[in-house]
From TrEMBL:
<dbReference type="Pfam" id="PF03129">
    <property type="entry name" value="HGTP_anticodon"/>
</dbReference>
<dbReference type="InterPro" id="IPR015807">
    <property type="entry name" value="His-tRNA-ligase"/>
</dbReference>
<feature type="binding site">
    <location>
        <position position="280"/>
    </location>
    <ligand>
        <name>L-histidine</name>
    </ligand>
</feature>
<dbReference type="GO" id="GO:0004821">
    <property type="term" value="F:histidine-tRNA ligase activity"/>
</dbReference>
<comment type="subunit">
    <text>Homodimer.</text>
</comment>
<keyword id="KW-0436">Ligase</keyword>
<feature type="binding site">
    <location>
        <position position="134"/>
    </location>
    <ligand>
        <name>L-histidine</name>
    </ligand>
</feature>
<dbReference type="Pfam" id="PF13393">
    <property type="entry name" value="tRNA-synt_His"/>
</dbReference>
<protein>
    <recommendedName>
        <fullName>Histidine--tRNA ligase</fullName>
        <ecNumber>6.1.1.21</ecNumber>
    </recommendedName>
</protein>
<dbReference type="InterPro" id="IPR006195">
    <property type="entry name" value="aa-tRNA-synth_II"/>
</dbReference>
<dbReference type="InterPro" id="IPR045864">
    <property type="entry name" value="aa-tRNA-synth_II/BPL/LPL"/>
</dbReference>
<keyword id="KW-0963">Cytoplasm</keyword>
<keyword id="KW-0648">Protein biosynthesis</keyword>
<keyword id="KW-0547">Nucleotide-binding</keyword>
<dbReference type="GO" id="GO:0005524">
    <property type="term" value="F:ATP binding"/>
</dbReference>
<feature type="binding site">
    <location>
        <position position="116"/>
    </location>
    <ligand>
        <name>L-histidine</name>
    </ligand>
</feature>
<dbReference type="GO" id="GO:0005737">
    <property type="term" value="C:cytoplasm"/>
</dbReference>
Amino acid sequence: MSQGKPTPLSGFPEWLPAGQLVQRQVIDTLSRTFELHGFAPLSTRAVEPLDQLLRKGETSKEVYVLRRLQADADDASDSGLGLHFDLTVPFARYVLENAGKLQFPFRRYQIQPCWRGERPQEGRYREFWQADIDVVDRDTLSPHYEVELPLVIADALGALPLPKATMHVNNRKLSQGFYTGLGLSDPMAAIRIVDKIDKIGPAGVGATLASELGASDAQVKACLALAEIRTADGSFADRVAALGVSDPLLDEGVEELTRVVETAAEHAPGLVVADLRIARGLDYYTGTVYETFLDGAEALGSICSGGRYDNLATAGTESYPGVGLSIGVSRILGRLIGRAELTATRTVPTCVLVALPDDASRPACDRIAATLRRRGIATEVAPAAQKYGKQIRFAQRRGIPYVLFPDAEGGAEIRDIRSGEQTAVQLDSWQPPAADLHPRLATE
RNA sequence: GUGGCUGUAGCUCAGCUGGUAGAGCACCGGGUUGUGGUCCCGGGUGUCGUGGGUUCAAGUCCCAUCAGUCACCCCA
């Protein structure tokens, strides 16, 4: 019974083998970098109770819910479970659940798929991978983590062959304090309105501030002036001061942001800019907020975002403030794989193809392959005893760098099919250059 | 989730006002009967995204649907 050819599912991308290999390489590279900074690997289940996912009134989230197919037809209830839409909320739950067994400050990384039911387009999927790092502590979290995490991200992104990235950083205390000091009725609403400045322009923001918050001309002018501030060093503080607004929370925010920007400028020059219009949508952020854009792909949106959250992991009197950043792995890969700007040096793990002289030689060739594998060299034997030209082409199509030709006396020659160089080798000692041992990421 | 645009071979695309499809590259076979890439010769490999409808006749017109993409929303 033919069911016809299956079609793709909107928003659920599946890369071809070459892309899969690229994603694996990217994830491995990120994992190594995170571990180098002492972050422990962690995975959480795919599902969370809906009340966990929807806490903080995040009802706008397009959460996929789980329901048993076998549920009674007249049973309208669901399981009360939903797929997580990010890795921060599940992590906060995990911390609360295991607080007694964890050591604080607790730092972990987590690389997993997430699900959101929104309309897909380039860089936006319904199933997508995030690579998330967070640090949480008990009761209070030292501000220096807000400086450290961007540097870890700088290392991680720097280890990948990507276009230059720029991280725009702001501090909610700065914005909120500024609007409070300015005398606006609803500082949080002002933050959200000003965040739209790239969409609706300064005039639109001004009009909205006036109509929704009753802001005066002077207040609107001050808000727009703040939103214009964007500096690669600590000089933003002088420009904020020049606006003549005073508020204790504002001062705190300026101090924290100054530390982030100046430290980043020292350790990762060119990565971070203070950008006082950045707000971030998620309302659980309470301090530093981050958004990162790839140069030349700004329209793709942020490829790494996060911030400090003081109240996400709280239960009763227990409080575990944290700060985290998430890299949008699928967003980056969808763009770069889609445009063939990021590839792997080969489409299979195989380093050596053992040529098959004739069918009777297969056992001997299998032994040769086993010998190489024992030394960690990924090896496969040619699928059929075709003409050597065909066998070489088999390797070439897949990017396999070496073809091994056995001879009748138990020796072998290995050909580097990129250069055409072919030499007799000792099977029990030959080793490829380290660069050829595994597929690597490559830009084209 | 709302709205717009797009959908022909593996890829990039052509196909005028309706007459059951074509180019380049790629791929396959051979020249070269066991060492690829160059060159030469030969081969079209296709449910025109899918399903309906109009028509004597649909790749072409209409509707729906799926997918991609863009804007909104939101955000990785």
